[in-house]
Amino acid sequence: MSFFHFVGGSDSESDFDGFSSDGYDGPPDCSCGRCPGGGFGLFMSQIIFGSYAYDPWANRREKSSASEWREKLAMQKFKDVQDKVKHALMEKTKLVVKLGCLPKSLSPLKDLPDILVEHICGFAGLPEGKPRPIAAMGWVPSSAFAAGIGSSSTSRSTVYRRSARRVNYSELDVDEDGFEMNETQAAKKNDDVLEEEVHVDLTDLSIYRTGEKIVIPLTKPNEHLTAPCWRDFSRAVRINEGWDVKRVVATPEEKKRYRESRKGAVYFINVIFTVPGEAMKNDTRTKKFAFRSSQSHPSNPEDASVYLRDAVASAVRSVTGEVDQQSLKRALDAGYSKHFVLAEAARQRSDGNLKPAAKKPKLHVK
């Protein structure tokens, strides 16, 4: 530190008296970088306490342009899949309604009362009492249902009806979907268009089972998402109700097949859609549980009454009036409530009128 700066000869702003009897505490607002309270002392303290520690990401982007591009493509694919699933759910609702509006000889819901059929017809906007056949409702074929609303098959059928003849697309400057050829070629060259459309097969019956999880493949190993991209992409998917996303590590053979040369792990990305509604119970488990319970405690009413009499008798004979735990358990398994068993035991104990217990039945155990 120079003498001129110490005595106040510096051109920096300071009201410091160099030879004050209070001692040197440093200028209050000095930023010259040489005073203990100035910028240099602050800089040294930041180095000591790690504020200026080595940061490998300093002045760098978290995501490269290529990784951001792959994340954008994956998000566009997910939006496409989400739209197809929404359309499939709409078609499912239409199918259920139309099945209820068929004539009774054809409808699988023919056992329903007439009042319910009238309500269904009113909901679907059909005339009551005389439902139209399903062909008159403009039923979408199964191929169009698999691809969703607005597929190429429905577009072709619209063109056929309007022209009243089969259209030869080679004579026109349009493709099968009705777009001009120059616009189609320009769209294929556009970077915003997906290189490959995700194929979603929704023709199976899993979409009709509430609570069923449908796994849809989304990306391949050559469309690898880095850790920051996967973090943001998974959050964007899971924020939608009923959707989840999982990663599956690709094997070395799969990496070779997709010509992926990364040394680290690469993944397949699958999105999972849960069909709205309560999950169906497993019938096999229910049957096994019912079979085991019927073996240990038969549901015969006569046997249940015997278990009740045993429980009441154990309470009446007891000095404290408590019911034997084994007899109480058998009565509860037979279908009686604990409150009813205790109340019946207290009533017979107060009356002193104990019914004789019947002969215990043999358990039907094979």
Low-confidence blocks of residues? 1-29, 127-184, 189-196, 283-299, 356-361
Multimeric status of the protein: single chain
Mind describing the biggest β-sheet?
Answer: 3 strands, antiparallel
Strand content: 5-15%
* Major sheet strand order: 1-3-2
Question: Could you tell me the radius of gyration in angstroms?
Answer: 39 Å
Task: Tell me the number of strands.
Answer: 3
What is the CA–CA distance across the termini? 103 Å
Mean pLDDT: 63
**Topology as a string of helices (H) and strands (E):** HHHHHHHEHEHEHHHH
Biased composition (Basic residues): 357-366
Region (Disordered): 347-366
Describe this structure in words.
This protein is mostly helical and 366 residues long. The chain has three domains: 1-53, no CATH class; 65-274, no CATH class; 293-351, no CATH class. The protein contains 13 helices and three strands. The chain has a three-stranded antiparallel sheet with strand order 1-3-2, with helices on one face. α3 (65-100) packs parallel to α8 (227-238), α11 packs antiparallel against α12 (325-333) and α11 packs across α13. The longest helix has 36 residues, at 65-100. It is elongated and about 90 Å long. Residues 357-366 have a biased composition (Basic residues). Residues 347-366 are annotated as: Disordered.
